[in-house]
Structures are given as structure tokens and as C-alpha cells.
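Weekend entry, working from home. Most of the wet-lab plans are on hold until the incubator is repaired, so I used the time to fold the two sequences that have been sitting in the queue since the last round of cloning. Logging both here for the record. First:
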Amino acid sequence: MDGGYTLRTRKIMTNKLLHRLQMVVDIIHPELGGVSVEKIKERLAKTYKAKPEQIIVYGLQTAFGGSRSTGFALIYDNKDFLAKFEPKYRLRRLGLLPAKTGSRKQKKELKNKRKKVRGKAKATVGVGKKKK
């Protein structure tokens, strides 16, 4: 119990199809308001002899009254499998994919402009004019 919290894993399952280890993570932190995902990743990396970049921790919820949190952890065999099987929004969170740009209105306007054009011209709609 170093760092003021205890980390326990349960329901550990090896998923060979997705090349990962799946588990439920229970964190008991009586003196702390919560434990950061980075600290949890480091502790799991040390316990399961993996690199923190291969670990995904998500779905953390603190129990009513505090001092106890529960979430999920995935430990991938390597970073390639992580990039292949993780949803895009989690990859964006990790910084492995670029963030989405443009407002919702801009995307809708572009979609409607493309509807009015046929063939190869669809690719050039909304790109902008070349500077001289």
C-alpha cells in the first residue's frame, strides 16, 4: 500500500483474439479523493511486467461516500495491437490519433455542398483555392 492506495485486480481474462489481458480494477484510497489513471497504469505495469503505453484504464467510478473506486483495465501485448483494436476516441485521449477539428455546423455544410457535386469534383469541394 505505497502511495496511500491499494490496487486489486479481479475477473482477469486473457483475450487471445484481441491480444490483451482484461480485468476489473478495484482501488481503495481512504486518504485520497481519487487516484490518477497514470498512477494506476504505472502500478499495473509493475505488477504485470508491461509497459505503461500498452495499458488502457477506463470507466473509473468512485463509490458513494468515497475511498473506493472501480474501473476496467486492458493490457495489450504490444502497441500495434492497441492501435488496431482500441476505439478511436480512446486513441485520441492517449494522443495516438489527432484531435477532431471543425465544428459540427462546418461538417454539415461541407456534406451538403458535396451532395450538389458529382464525380471526382466531390474531393475538391471545401478544400479551398490555391494561393498564387
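Second, folded right after the first finished:
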Amino acid sequence: MLATGGTIAGSSSNPASSAKYQAATVPVTALLDAVPALGAVARIEAEQLAQVDSKDMSFALWSRLVERVAFWSAQPDVSGIVITHGTDTLEETAMLLHLACVGTVPVVLTAAMRPSTSLSADGPLNLLDAVRVAADAGATAKGVLLVINQEIHAGRDVMKAHTSAVNAFVSPVSGPIGFVQDNLVRFVRTPSRLPAKAWPVPGAWPQVEIVASYAEPGRIVVDALAQAGVSGLVVAAAGNGSVHQSLVEALTDAAGAGVAVVRSSRTGAGHVAIPAPPRPAAGVFVSAGDLNPYKARVLLALALAAEPGLAKDPAALQALFTEN
């Protein structure tokens, strides 16, 4: 078990409040002690990798997390890995691990919407269910998973869709891939897309930022980011990847200057149509497919780190987004 902090490790002086608390204060040993039923499921070795509020997630911690997953996956007596994480950036970490941790040992993220000291805290059951899934033979070769609120989600697909509800996480395009009910772990489908090989985690991450399209946006932000030397831009576009004309002009200039531009949708669900041919002209930029802007940013950053020339080859970049 690799612990990184978050609300699941949060505490408050007022158990009746689930909004006012301090994240990442309870050590993983205390979390485990609070769920004695874990001992009937698996023998757990815990590592306190970090204690952070996930809103402050960093590239350095991502790199460390991938490194420790690789280490423990290589141990012959390890059957599965559970990662405790905050909910704010969980979907981004899930996307990173989906791309960078390809193997047969199950890797299962879990989290909580209420701190550990809260009335009806959801963390203990989520932790137990995550261990049940990580120890289940059916979790093998299904990619990185998230187990929360008795549901099993594919790491690539899942996103946070509510500010405070315990059922805050959804997979909007395809739904959960399974569920947990007491000792029963049931997979109802296999994730639709798994990487063929692990993406390397860069030593130096390229600068990739997100901009949004809305009613009459200015081009100031895009121009400033391009001038600052960003490697890529993901557009949180309207509807089916529609970009305001004033923003199209700025993004076209940025693409001409060697900045990779990818269109996603701000709607939260659905597939952004792929224009033919995919080229950065007249607002026709690379499609993120069904990846939301935050997941698309992770893939774009890894792709540009591995192949910086992709910024000038939108057809090849489009193929990567279509495959992954």
C-alpha cells in the first residue's frame, strides 16, 4: 500500500463537518488499524510515500509514485498494489498511472470524500474494497483501477463529477467496469483501451497548459503562453470541440510557432469528432477523443516528452490520441 495523503487521511476537530478539515494528517498505519477486516483479505506492507492534499500534486511526486509502483510490482510476493490518494487530482494521477504502469500486477487507487474523523466516513470501506480488488485474480491485466463507493472504474475513464457526494466519481462514457459487495468482487467488462507499452515518465516535464473556449474569449492568454515557450496547449472547448473564432486565430498562430494544440470538451462527457485531415488550420486541431482536458494534458505531456517533434506532426499526434 502506497499512501500519498488526501481526504482519506484527513482529520477534523468536528466530526459533524465534512467540509472543514485538514487533509493528509493521518498516517497510513492508523488508516490500516482502523480497518481490522483487512487482515482477513491480505498481508499488507505499507509505505507512506507522501502526505499531501492532492490539489497540490506535483510532477516530482508522480515520478516517485511510478517508481515505487515499478519497484513493488517486481517483488515476487506482491499480489497487488493499493494507492491512497486525494480526490481533487485523482483522475489525473489515474491517467498517468494508466499510461506509465503497464503490467500484470493490479494497481488500484482509492480515496474518500469525507475525512477519516467524519461521521459516516467513507474511507474505511473504500480501503477495504480496494484491497479486495487488488487481491482478486480478476483484476489482473485490467490496467490501473479506481475503487470507490463500491464501484470499480478504469483509470483512463474515471473523473470526479461532484464536489462533495460520496458517489462523486463516474466514468461518463462507458460506466464502471465492476463492483464490490462485501466479499464479492465482480467485473462486468474489460476496459476498452489499454496501452500496448508503458510510457516513460520524463525527467523534465514539458510545459503543457489548458485554456478554455467560451463567449468572446480574448487571445491574451494563448499569446502569453506561446510567448512563454509552452510546448503544448489543451483547449477545453465548447460542445463537440468547438473553438471560438478569436481563439482559433490565436491557437493557429501558436501551432505555427511549434506549439502542439489538442481540442477536448468542457462538457465532461462525449467524444470530440476527429476532423479529416487532422491539421492545425481553420480551427481543425488534434482531437482528444473522449479524454477530458486534464487527462488529455497528461497524455500530451508524456507524448511531447518522448517525441518533441510531434508538435509539428499533428497527424502522428492524432494517432497517439486515437490509440491511447
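Plan for Monday: verify the second prediction. DSSP finds eight helices and 14 strands in the chain.
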